[in-house]
Design goal:
Blueprint lengths: L1 H9 L7 H12 L4 E4 L6 H12 L3 E5 L6 H5 E5 L6 E5 L6 E5 L6 H5 L2 H6 L1 E4 L2 E4 L5 E6 L12 H4 L4 E3 L6 H12 L12 H12 L5 H14 L5 E3 L3 H17 L7 H5 L2 H5 L4 E2 L7 H15 L7 H4 L1
Parallel strand pairs: 1-8, 1-9, 2-5, 5-8
Antiparallel strand pairs: 3-4, 6-7, 10-11
Helix pairs in contact: 1-2, 1-3, 2-11, 10-11
Length: 313
Amino acid sequence: MRARQIIDEVNKVVVGKENEVSKIMMALLSRGHILLEDMPGVGKTTLANAFAKALGLEWRRIQFTPDVLPSDIVGFNAIDQNSGNFVLHKGAVFCNLFLADEINRTSSRTQSALLEVMEENQITVDGVTFQAYDPFNVIATQNPFGSAGTQLLPESQLDRFMICLSLGYPSAESEVEILRRKQHPENYQISQVVTADELREMQKEVDQIFVHDEIMKYAVQLVYMTRSHSQLSMGASPRGSICLIQMGKANAYLHDRNYVIPKDIQEVLFDVLGHRILLASARQSKENDLKRQILQEVLNSVQQPSLSENNAG
């Protein structure tokens, strides 16, 4: 399977993070955007670069700093000295895969320049709208809130990311392997596995994965319960339900199934909903632990549908 080949290529340079790499592959197959939240130095940018190379897509990267402007993202028009006409200078999002490094170190105005293209697959420059590239995905990284020079992403921006992942520190064994591979980087070069056309074909195959009505009801019940939980001030939006189903279909695809089962939804629940819920009273250092606990309570409270393989498929 080509998706597995892509995952294997990325795992050449990202050691001990097979689960996270698989989740990112699912999001890309679902046409979703990915947010990687973690401390510096754990391989977020390396992972994003590895996917760009393995997918063989046209990609661009911006290191977000306080002086990055919206025009750096979407582009601007300038007068050509020879013709006297306005000429479009395309911004960084005119590509297939946009790597937004440390996105929470720039201004809210610059962050918001990404909203339109992430949601509507179009780019507006000085009142003129252009179609985004197909496929188009954003892989953004951010340092934990509270790190020097960071600020919280607005909820409207967070909601546009299909999943949010945290890589965490590698195990001691994995870290030794990282050091070992650094001694001979020529042996761990990323090879291109697919073209943009092939990725689009894979995305269409994911679209065809069957989802039973009972699975849809299950996903909605899970999301609905986040809106009434006593420890949450904000639950997940309907976009959370959509993303749960999309990620569930991609999960089934990676397991060579043409139908979704409850486990497909359960395995991606926290990655899809964790950044879409707000705690009523949060202690930043323990926020993710509490969110995970709440979502586990939600999962335990909703009875999963009992479907035979014949009914599920």
